[in-house]
Amino acid sequence: MTINRVEKVAISIFIAIASPASLFVLLWWSTSALAMSRVLKIQEDTIIIASLLGLGIGILVNIFFLNDLRESFYDFGYKFLIPLYFFWSAIALAFFMGMPFGNLLLGTLAGLYYGRR
Questions:
Q1: Could you report the per-residue pLDDT of 59-72, keeping only the tens digit for each?
Q2: Do residues 25 and 81 both lie within one domain?
Q3: Phi and psi based region of residue 97 (left: phi greater than 0; alpha: psi -120 to 50; beta: remaining)
C-alpha cells in the first residue's frame, strides 16, 4: 500500500501523540486500580511516578520506533486493535464526562482507518 506524504505526516503525528498518552493513562489507571483495590499498598507518589514513567516510555517508543510504526500502521492485527479501541473508548468517555462526543469521534477515526486499510 502506498502512503502519500500528507498521510505519512498525519500518521506520524497521531502515533507521536497516541503512544505517550496511551502509556501514561495505562500506567496511571493500572497503578490507581491496584491501590484502590488494595492489591498492593501503593502511595500516591508512586502512582505519579508510574504515570510519568509511562509517558517517558511512550516518548522513547516514538524516538526509536516511530518510522517502523508508521510503515506498519495499516498492518496491526485485530487482537491489538480491538482492545486498543476499547481502551481509548474508556478514555474518551472519561474525558467528556460521560457524553458520547469522544466516542463518536473515535468511531469516525476507526471507520476511516478500517476503510483505508
A1: 999 999 999 999 89
A2: no
A3: left
Main-chain phi, psi angles of 94, to 5 degrees: -70, -40
What is the Cα–Cα distance from 35 to 61, expressed in whole angstroms?
27
Domain that holds residue 92: 76-117
The pLDDT assigned to 98 comes to 87
Does position 94 have pLDDT exceeding 70, yes or no? Answer: yes
Averaged pLDDT of the chain: 92
Q: DSSP letters of 30-64? A: HHHHHHHTTSS---HHHHHHHHHHHHHHHHHHHHH
Q: Is the pLDDT of residue 23 over 70?
A: yes
108 in the same domain as 65: no
Count of Cβ atoms closer than 10 Å to residue 98 Cβ = 6
> Residue 24 carries which DSSP code?
H
